[in-house]
């Protein structure tokens, strides 16, 4: 199995894209921050089904981290990641920050994207400016790589909602494909940040999938109010875990639903385990009033 070719510069990536276009090849992009796990590899496998050529971008984007967050200690494991992608991806785009944001070295400024009001809720309420940073880098990656298809994970449900809006707003000819969350056998969603957890914290992190199970069960007959209550109460049994939010949103607009809402809903949950912030999500087919 041959390892993917790594492009480190925008010039290399642009030349590659031009060559592939000339050959009539379609391209699927999987944007990541690296520290790859089986969830990422599932996105790559999906990308493989959707296009001739698969590019994985690996870039820990400084713009989406706030002061006091884990930008400095975020795992950077490029060599291991490239090896893990052998036989799965064709190319890795792993640019330096100066390549992505040339204004840092006196070059032109990259257009800043704004996530709007949805970007200020849930993850955005706890991580102010996070989604402006995510959308700015995603738009920049789209502009450089010019994918036909982009594959994202549903685990980051709010990110998916906002990227879909971004594609529409900018009128980009990019198909957005969203993959369900890949989990450990005991239900914990795979996440690069799981590696921060001690053994005890790893057990406590099960609060998130346990809450989602309780929510799905309650949603069979309960209304939005009781579903929220049941989900939140699960966290009372996990003293190592601090619940940030557990809520229900309307997937069409990402607005918090009212207590008497009827229809499909997305559960979004975020919690801090020790010092590690984890998120998870689940789609509910229907809530009852
Ligand atoms: N368990 C998973 N199943 C499917 N997709 C996933 C999973 N975890 C992450 N992804 C997706 O992988 C892409 C890259 O995400 P990222 O590199 O931030 O990984 P992560 O594991 O979520 O990292 P972090 O722990 O920093 O949030 C995103 O589209 C994200 O939704
Ligand atoms: C989409 C993304 C790669 C942008 O930095 C990041 O937010 C992520 O890994 O989900
Ligand atoms: N998976 C979203 C990237 C972040 O937490 O910054």
Structural summary, described in words:
This protein has 289 residues and is α/β, with parallel strands linked by helices. The protein has 2 domains: 5-179, Rossmann fold; 192-283, Pantoate-beta-alanine ligase, C-terminal domain (Pantoate--beta-alanine Ligase, Chain: A,domain 2), CATH 3.30.1300. Helix content is 34%, strand content 22%. The protein contains 10 helices and 10 strands. The chain has helices spanning 10-22, 38-50, 78-84, 97-100, 123-126, 130-145, 157-170, 199-204, 207-218, 224-233, and strands at residues 5-7, 27-32, 53-58, 91-93, 149-153, 175-179, 241-250, 255-256, 263-273, 276-287. Strands 1-4-3-2-5-6 form a 6-stranded parallel beta sheet, sandwiched between helices. A hairpin with a 2-residue loop joins strand 9 and strand 10. Helix 9 (207-218) runs antiparallel to helix 10. The chain is globular and about 55 Å long. The protein starts with a strand and ends with a strand.
